[in-house]
Amino acid sequence: MAAKFRVLHLGDDIKYNHDVYQRFASEFDIIQPTAAERERGEFMRALKDGRWGNFHAIFRPFWNTGGEMGRWDAELIPLLPASVRIMASAGAGYDWADVDVFAQHGIVYCNGAAASSESVADMALFLILAVFRNLAWSHQAAHSLSPQRFLDAHQNSPLTALNPRGRTLGIIGLGQIGYTIAKKAHAAFGMKIAYNDLFRKSPELERAVDAQFVADLDDLLGQADCVIVATPFAGKTLVDAERLRRFKRGARFINIARGSLVDEEALLQALDNGQILAAGLDVHASEPYVHPRLATHSRVMMMSHNAGGTVDTHVGFERLAMENIEGFLLRGKALTPVNLHLTKPPKSVL
């Protein structure tokens, strides 16, 4: 009987896709470290000692568990057995994982953006409407129980409100999530779509949402009525004070990617001086802490990093992580690889 690939399952038991997991568990030998073994010190000791032997895939089906060992970096990744070929994880962002270091060790990293794109795009639509209509002002005033604040918002917030229809939405990063946002914003609000990305989309995909590719990011910022950040964190701040000065004056700004992409002090100053009229933030630089002045600003709508937070997303994360491993180990092709273009040629694994 042929030997099976072995999968290290990090985190809780699966909750949703029991039929898929039944198939998955029949195809692979599953190893599931305890919660204590997942703490960074113990996890690293276990890898050094070869406690789980050779395994070929790492499976993290949930965002809330399985990350107890902290950042996957140049300290941790080299401790993995040479047999490891793929890590498939829940979550769209991967700022907690050095995917280039995975690639250096011949390990393909797969994220769950395809499973969360619908939920994140829906939240983006809410934030687009919030910043164009300045709903934070109205929302905060209504919750204050102050008649004066209510009347102020009732009378004056409409003087800063615009309809999104016909306005230009500038999307930084037109990946799975960014493209879904473009489709929804174009269809629901009749917005014009402009985007900046490392790679231009095909003419067919551009035509489907009437999107214009803008090769220079500063040019995009200067022409967009609302800018939305939908790109992964790549190790440095993307929207800083200098970049904010490139925005069209009075533009709206939304971040549904990662808080570390934005200089929050610079954003606050841009809001105060009118360079940015309103902001919608699902993510924050120092989560779970939020910037106190941004939190109370009348033109900032804030969420608690919930853009992808639906049951549908969790079901999709779980399933996609399994299907990525099946696709790669059994058929030679992962569904949502992030770093495949950086990864060394595959090693012999069995």
Automatic annotation (TrEMBL):
Domain D-isomer specific 2-hydroxyacid dehydrogenase catalytic, residue spans: 72-339
GO cellular component terms attached to this protein's record: cytosol
D-isomer specific 2-hydroxyacid dehydrogenase NAD-binding domain ranges (all copies): 126-307
Keywords: Oxidoreductase
GO molecular function, one term: NAD binding
Family according to the record: Belongs to the D-isomer specific 2-hydroxyacid dehydrogenase family.
Name of the featured protein: D-mandelate dehydrogenase, putative
Annotated organism of origin: Aspergillus clavatus (strain ATCC 1007 / CBS 513.65 / DSM 816 / NCTC 3887 / NRRL 1 / QM 1276 / 107)
The organism's taxonomic lineage, starting at the top: Eukaryota, Fungi, Dikarya, Ascomycota, Pezizomycotina
